[in-house]
């Protein structure tokens, strides 16, 4: 009896060992098929993608059967897709920057020649010419400076503002005159509500570009509707800052423009617009330590607020 029990126990032990070995082998192959191979495949994809992240063909395609692994693959695919698009956009912007620098270089030379001729025009005795010549000279000088700034931007970044005390009303009148000349046939009125002798501390050239971009955008938005409209600029002298508001009676900003308001090549409000005007204006205002913000927009029009801090050294 004892021998029979011992023999039975040995057979049970051997059977258990065989079952354990078979189970272990099955678990090994199951783990290899369900976890190890997918993880190894993901690691391989990541290595290949890292070698050339701009190649969209190297983006992983989720195929794991395990839910958690598939979710990880889908998250990785989204990350790789976003990165590839960002790299392509960066490359396009670099190419665009190079092209703009070349164009600005040649344009600067052309405008410099034109500037010499306008200097002679200023000496004319004709009353009309004498009245218009300073505006022409100012516009060409501003264009030359802009070209030079563009070339400098290609090497480093937008130069910092040269802050001076200036009469805001004179600058605004110059901007409005430029907008009226740009589209003399349009049924758009321009108005300014600025306290007399309001002096602000800013860079005149850069602030001209800020206001010109905002008012040009407003004018073009109204023109696109084919209806009459108004662009209004208002300024306030507050305790801590100067506040400038630019409003229009246009159709308001579309959803895409609001979503990418200060993003170059994505925030254009018009068809074919690049959105660069607002980006430039925002960067220039930030250079003054201020802010450019969308106050509101809708069917009744759009309002932008500029805030320029006075700082400790201002009057």
How would you describe what is shown here?
It is a single chain. The protein has 7 helices and 7 strands; from the N terminus they run H-H-H-E-H-E-E-H-E-E-H-H-E-E. It has 315 residues and is of the alpha+beta class. It folds into 3 domains: 2-87, no CATH class; 97-155; 164-309, 2-Layer Sandwich (Heat Shock Protein 90). The strands form 2 sheets. The protein has a 5-stranded mixed beta sheet. It has a two-stranded antiparallel sheet with strand order 1-3. A hairpin with a 3-residue loop joins strand 4 and strand 5. It is elongated.
SSE string, helix = H, strand = E?
HHHEHEEHEEHHEE
The CATH top-level class label of the largest domain: Alpha Beta
Number of strands: 7
Helix tally equals 7
Specify Rg, calculated over alpha carbons. 33 Å
> What average pLDDT do the residues reach?
80
Largest sheet data: 5 strands, mixed
Q: Give the name of the CATH architecture of the largest domain.
A: 2-Layer Sandwich
Q: Approximately how much beta-strand content do the residues carry? A: 15-25%
**Helicity, in percent?**
55-70%
Number of domains as seen in the coordinates: 3
Spatial order of the strands in the main sheet? 2-4-5-7-6
The assigned structural class equals alpha+beta
Which word captures the global form?
elongated
CATH fold title of the largest domain:
Heat Shock Protein 90
CATH superfamily of the largest domain: Histidine kinase-like ATPase, C-terminal domain
Which consecutive residue ranges, at least 5 long each, have pLDDT under 50?
none
């Amino acid at each position: 009896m004892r021998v029979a029990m011992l023999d039975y126990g040995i057979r049970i032990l051997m059977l258990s060992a065989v079952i354990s070995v078979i189970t272990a082998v099955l678990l090994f192959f199951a783990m290899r098929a369900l976890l190890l191979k997918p993880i190894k495949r993901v690691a391989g994809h990541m290595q290949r993608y890292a070698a050339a992240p701009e190649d969209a063909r190297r983006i992983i395609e989720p195929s794991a059967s395990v839910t958690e692994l598939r979710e990880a693959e889908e998250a990785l695919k989204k990350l790789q897709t976003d990165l590839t698009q960002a790299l392509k956009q960066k490359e396009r912007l670099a190419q665009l920057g190079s092209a703009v620098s070349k164009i600005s270089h040649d344009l600067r030379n052309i405008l410099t020649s034109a500037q010499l001729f306008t200097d002679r025009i200023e000496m004319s005795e004709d009353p009309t010419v004498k009245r218009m010549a300073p505006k022409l000279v100012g516009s060409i000088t501003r264009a030359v400076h802009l070209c030079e700034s563009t070339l400098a931007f290609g090497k480093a970044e937008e130069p910092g503002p040269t802050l001076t005390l200036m009469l805001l009303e004179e600058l605004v009148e110059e901007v409005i005159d430029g907008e009226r000349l740009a589209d003399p046939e349009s049924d758009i009125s321009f108005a300014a509500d600025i306290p007399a002798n309001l002096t602000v501390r800013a860079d005149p050239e850069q602030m001209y570009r800020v206001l010109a971009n905002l008012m040009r955008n407003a004018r073009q938005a109204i023109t696109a509707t084919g209806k009459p409209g108004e662009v209004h600029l208002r300024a306030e002298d507050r305790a801590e800052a100067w506040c400038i508001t630019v409003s229009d009676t246009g159709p308001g900003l579309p959803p895409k423009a609001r979503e990418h308001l200060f993003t170059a090549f994505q925030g254009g409000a018009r068809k074919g617009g690049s959105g660069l005007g607002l980006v430039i204006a925002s960067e220039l205002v930030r250079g003054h330590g201020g802010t450019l913000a969308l106050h509101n927009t809708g069917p009744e029009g759009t309002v932008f607020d500029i805030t320029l801090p006075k700082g400790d050294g201002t009057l």
